[in-house]
Design goal:
CATH architecture of the largest domain: Sandwich
Order of helices and strands: HHEEEEEEEEHHHEHHEE
CATH superfamily of the largest domain: Jelly Rolls
CATH class of the largest domain: Mainly Beta
Helix content: 25-40%
C-alpha cells in the first residue's frame, strides 16, 4: 500500500499533504487497496457504498447497460480522481451505474465516516483532506453540468463540437487526446457509432478538425 503514497500525494484528495503525513493517515482513514484486471467490475449497479474511492492506477469507465444490452458511457475516471461520493449518504440508495476497469487498475477505498470525522488522534492534515473532498465534489459537479450542456445538443455534429471544445479548454490546447476510442465516444455521446464516424469525416472535410485515433486537432 505504501508504494502508492507518492501517487496519492498527487491526487485531489491529498492535495497539500506530505507523503509522511499520508502514510500516517491511511490507517486513520480506514484505507483499503484493491486491484482489478482490465474488464473487471469495480462497482456494480445495485450495490450499496460506504466508502469514497480514489483511483491510484489505471483507468475506469462509469457505464450503464439497458435491458437489451445497449451501453451508455456516463464518464471516465482517471488517476487521482475521486468517485463513489454520490452514494455514501445514508439516504443515497444503491448504485445506479457500473464502474469497470478499462485497463489494469488499483483503487483505494476510504471509509467515509472516518474521512469526514476528525479522528481521536486529531491528525494535523485531516481538516485539509475534508476541504479537498469538498472542492473535488464541486469540480465534479461542474463537469456534470458541462456534460449536460453537451448532451442537450440536438445533432451529432453539435455534440461532437461541444465535447471537443470542452476538452480543448480543459487541456488548454487545440491538439487534444481524449480518453475514448470510437465506440466509447459514441456511447458517451449517446449516438450511433457509424453516424458519428461519418460526421467526423465531414467535419474533417469541412476543415474543422484533424484526427488520428483518439488524438484530435481543432482547426
Amino acid at each position: 500500500m505504501k508504494e502508492f503514497v507518492p501517487v496519492l500525494r498527487k491526487t485531489k484528495l491529498f492535495s497539500g499533504v506530505g507523503e509522511e503525513e499520508i502514510s500516517t493517515m491511511l490507517s486513520c482513514l480506514g484505507a483499503r487497496m484493491l486491484t482489478y484486471k482490465k474488464g473487471e467490475y469495480v462497482l456494480r449497479q445495485g450495490e450499496r457504498l460506504s466508502d469514497i474511492l480514489v483511483l491510484a492506477k489505471g483507468s475506469l469507465h462509469i457505464q450503464r447497460d439497458d435491458y437489451w444490452g445497449n451501453r451508455s458511457i456516463l464518464g471516465q475516471i482517471g488517476v487521482g480522481e475521486i468517485f463513489g461520493e454520490a452514494y455514501v449518504a445514508p439516504e443515497s440508495g444503491t448504485l445506479l451505474n457500473d464502474v469497470i476497469a478499462v485497463e489494469d487498475s488499483t483503487v483505494f477505498f476510504f471509509d467515509v465516516k472516518r474521512v469526514i470525522s476528525t479522528c481521536s488522534s486529531a491528525c494535523r492534515f485531516h481538516t485539509m483532506v475534508v476541504q479537498n473532498l469538498f472542492f473535488a465534489i464541486s469540480e465534479k459537479n461542474r463537469g456534470l453540468v458541462q456534460k449536460l450542456g453537451c448532451m442537450s445538443r440536438r445533432t451529432t455534429r453539435e455534440k461532437l463540437i461541444s465535447y471537443l471544445s470542452e476538452e480543448a479548454k480543459k487541456q488548454n490546447s487545440a491538439s487534444i487526446t481524449i480518453p475514448f476510442n470510437r465506440q466509447q465516444l459514441a456511447d458517451y455521446l449517446s449516438v450511433d457509432r457509424s453516424a458519428m464516424s461519418n460526421e467526423l469525416c465531414k467535419m474533417r472535410d469541412d476543415g474543422l478538425v484533424r484526427f488520428e485515433k483518439n488524438h484530435f486537432t481543432l482547426l
